[in-house]
């Protein structure tokens, strides 16, 4: 497509099998026709956000964009990470969501804490879903991060799968940080809100199997701690 | 001071010795008197941004804030990191600067590349300096990150100290990521602009001793790569 770098993946939530003809949704059509200036006969990569990496060939680039599915590879799921996070200050959640999606986190779970609850979360969730989609496409990943409905911290902890590895970011945490995020299955991290977790919440988490980890020799903001953990996790797992 | 978490450090660029009386600059005075509601006789921590951690006692909180310097500890410099970075897209440099400062990076060096140059850098530098200061205070670090004047990539590479460890973030980098950032002295990372480094620039960097490292098994945006590296660096060095 003439770009110096590979273009972003197309996001096609409905992706039929090889040989099928498809009409691209308007966002994807705009990207192909206007941004990348794709031509008939050229191929583009797409994903369904659930692990599929497809090659499609453009068959029409006027009055919308038509294409034919050439091939689909379904990628094996790698290690998984969930981020449970109290609200940071201001608008910092927006880019936190974007970065977590770039790092390949599977689920972003906002949690309401005693010292901070998510307001207007409904509005933001639509925005976050768009940011997660854009980050997936840009980073050429094939799995769309789930942005969950905010839950109270107790509910969020109760709903975790058995056997998951659990970490709690904590300025005074003692666990070796090199271990944080190393997990063959599902790694979960809990990050307190800007005002921190209360003693009670900390105890609830510890009893639920969360191990405190320190990510820097300094105090990190909520979103920075979440991000630092995710950066380490993605680096240690790929 | 009644806050649940420790308050941010005060930034006092001029910090006289123990026993001295000082008049707080207006920003610091506002923070102490209005935000923290400090009272006469209470102590507050402050830094000069050059490694000093001081305790000061409030002697007046009306018509400005007066204080007496009680003690000063000068912290030993730890491992050092510089981030050389091409321009990311849009306004993403703002929070990149904030996060690098939270992670304890010593110097942020914007570099102009063939595929991206920093515009209106003068205006932004003042803003970035404020963000770096706020991040230092918030994370209770005692060293202020330097925000350098943008340099052409060749100039930036030539001005690096001898003997520094040098890393280049690269989607196809082969070096083990666990090593990235492990350095007893000065670690330097070079991150290309949104459009990437050119082949020529990559060669220049390699000849200057930069080792390509891959930080995730996906493509990361400019600011995300810089951040991922800094998160790993701070985690491995404290």
Characteristic key phrases:
seven-stranded parallel sheet, alpha/beta, homodimer, Ribosomal Protein L25, Chain P, 238 residues, Alpha/beta knot, five-stranded mixed sheet
Topology order of chain A in helix (H) and strand (E) letters: EEHEEEEHEHEEHEEHEH
Structural class of chain A: alpha/beta
Radius of gyration of chain A: 20 Å
* First-to-last CA distance of chain A: 28 Å
Portion of residues in beta strands of chain A equals 15-25%
Would you tell me which CATH topology of the largest domain in chain A applies?
A: Alpha/beta knot
Mean pLDDT of chain A: 89
CATH-wise, what's the superfamily of the largest domain in chain A?
Answer: SPOUT methyltransferase, trefoil knot domain
Would you write up a description of this structure?
The structure is a homodimer of 238-residue chains. With 238 residues, chain A is α/β, with parallel strands linked by helices. The first copy, chain A, has helices at 26-35, 92-102, 121-139, 153-158, 199-207, 222-237; strands at 10-11, 21-23, 43-47, 52-60, 66-74, 80-85, 107-112, 146-147, 151-152, 165-169, 186-191, 211-213. Chain A has two domains: 10-74, Ribosomal Protein L25, Chain P; 80-237, SPOUT methyltransferase, trefoil knot domain (Alpha/beta knot, 3-Layer(aba) Sandwich). Helix content of chain A is 30%, strand content 24%. In chain A, the strands form two sheets. In chain A, strands 6, 7, 8, 9, 10, 11 and 12 form a seven-stranded parallel beta sheet that branches. The first copy, chain A, has a five-stranded mixed beta sheet with strand order 1-3-4-5-2, with helices on one face. In chain A, α3 links the parallel β7 and β8 (146-147). In chain A, α2 (92-102) runs parallel beside α3 (121-139) and α2 runs parallel beside α6 (222-237). The longest helix of chain A is centred in the middle third of the chain and has 19 residues, at 121-139. Chain A is elongated and about 60 Å long. The two termini of chain A are 28 Å apart. The A-B interface holds A 4-6, 78, 92, 95, 99, 102-104, 115, 138-141, 177-178, 180, 195-196, 215-221, 224, 227-228, 231-232, 234-236, 238 and B 4-6, 78, 92, 95, 99, 102-104, 115, 138-141, 177-178, 195-196, 215-221, 224, 227-228, 231-232, 234-236, 238.
